[in-house]
Amino acid sequence: MFEKPLGMRDTLPELYETKDHVRSSIEEEMKRWGYQFIETPALEYYETVGAVSAILDQQLFKLLDQQGHTLVLRPDMTAPIARVAASKLLKDDIPLRLAYSANVYRAQQREGGRPAEFEQIGVECIGDRTISADGEVIALMISSLKEAGLSEFQVSVGHIGFVQEFFRQILGTEERANALMKFLYEKNYVGYREHVKALGLSSIDKQRLLEFLQLRGGEEVIERGFELIENGCGAEAVHQLRQLWETISDYGEEASVKFDLTLVSHMSYYTGILFEVYAGNVGFPIGNGGRYDLLLQKFGKSTGATGFALRLDRMIEALGTLEKSEPVICILFSAERRKEAFEMAKTKRADGMRVVLQDINGVNNVDACTNKYADTIFLLGRGPS
């Protein structure tokens, strides 16, 4: 009778305090960078947000409203914000800088063990096609992580256009390219190598595909990318990465960034630069983002956009320690001194203290009560406390 739906979790007070502290630190940093917070409904129409969200259909929570329309619990925040921006906010020819902190919902398989509801905090920069915008959101993400208390993390940056063009050059069809990209998404590099060896390609092309796996590292990866690609389309993606590196360097954040040109994403709406961030011993990315210039076209607007989302649960796992709650004072009172207790609590709360008021008749174990709180004040009977 105490079971929760699959993938749902409770957040107990100590963990909630930590989440609140991390969330507040990041929100304040985003505001300092000029981003404005926005809220969207938890429920969206399947035909709009659900269909363009890039989350697999079987991971969507679906339900019907009274008119028979199919609704979904929002599986991400990028698509809902794109809907709002396209319909209500893109009135002037200036970029929008929007931020959010919200729960998203993705149904999980029984054996997965992952949460089906989790909180994301992130930003969307909409209406700017420049590499400066990509650099800004990456620099803001790095700054936000530092504000939250993380000191050791790594941002991996790639370009989905480079991967797609490189594979098309060698493999010829999008279907064959997608089959190989699946190994990259799963980070199954053994499977990737075996698949390449089994392909009916020349030894030179097979070698190029295998050398592709080595495109990870610092600034030197850019030149190696130029060497592997054959035409202008793929080279443009590498040029963009070079511009991004210069932008990140001007922010002074190059120590936190590495290139990984093998990086791909399950989010199909990414069109250019994309990135993931890893920290500590967490086995999954604690955040990710990228450019999605075509998504707003599905809502009737043609403009560029980029952004990122951080997972609060994974960030807290990376931090490794829970935030200590501020000390709470308990005032235990009897009926005769109730008013005095109320006045004392009011004064202390006005001074910024946390105060619990407790009628002595509601406590079965006074020792347990005094052990729980930082200080206990007794106002009992008619004498002094």
List keywords for this structure.
385 residues, alpha/beta, Rossmann fold, 2 domains, nine-stranded mixed sheet, three-stranded antiparallel sheet, 13 helices
Provide a quick synopsis of the model.
Belongs to the class-II aminoacyl-tRNA synthetase family. HisZ subfamily. The chain is 41% helix and 21% strand. The chain has 13 helices and 15 strands.
Measure the end-to-end span.
45 Å
Give the full name of the CATH homologous superfamily of the largest domain.
Answer: Bira Bifunctional Protein, Domain 2
What would the average pLDDT be, to the nearest integer?
A: 90
Q: Specify Rg, calculated over alpha carbons.
A: 26 Å
Helix content: 40-55%
Shape: elongated
What is the number of E strands?
Answer: 15
CATH architecture of the largest domain: 2-Layer Sandwich
Order of helices and strands: HEEHEEHEEHEHHHHEHHEEEEHEHEHE
Tally of DSSP helical segments: 13
Strands in their spatial order, largest beta sheet: 1-5-6-12-11-10-7-9-8
How many domains, in number, for the residues?
Answer: 2
* Most strands sheet: 9 strands, mixed
What structural class do the secondary elements suggest? alpha/beta
Helices and strands in order:
Blueprint: H1 13-32, E1 36-37, E2 43-45, H2 46-52, E3 62-64, E4 70-73, H3 78-89, E5 96-105, E6 117-126, H4 131-147, E7 153-159, H5 160-171, H6 174-185, H7 189-198, H8 203-212, E8 216-217, H9 220-228, H10 232-251, E9 257-260, E10 273-279, E11 287-291, E12 305-311, H11 312-319, E13 328-333, H12 338-350, E14 354-359, H13 366-372, E15 375-379
Parallel strand pairs: 1-5, 7-9, 13-14, 13-15
Antiparallel strand pairs: 2-4, 3-4, 5-6, 6-12, 7-10, 8-9, 10-11, 11-12
Helix pairs in contact: 1-4, 4-10, 5-6, 5-10, 9-10
GO cellular component, one term: cytoplasm
Pathway: Amino-acid biosynthesis; L-histidine biosynthesis; L-histidine from 5-phospho-alpha-D-ribose 1-diphosphate: step 1/9
Protein name: ATP phosphoribosyltransferase regulatory subunit
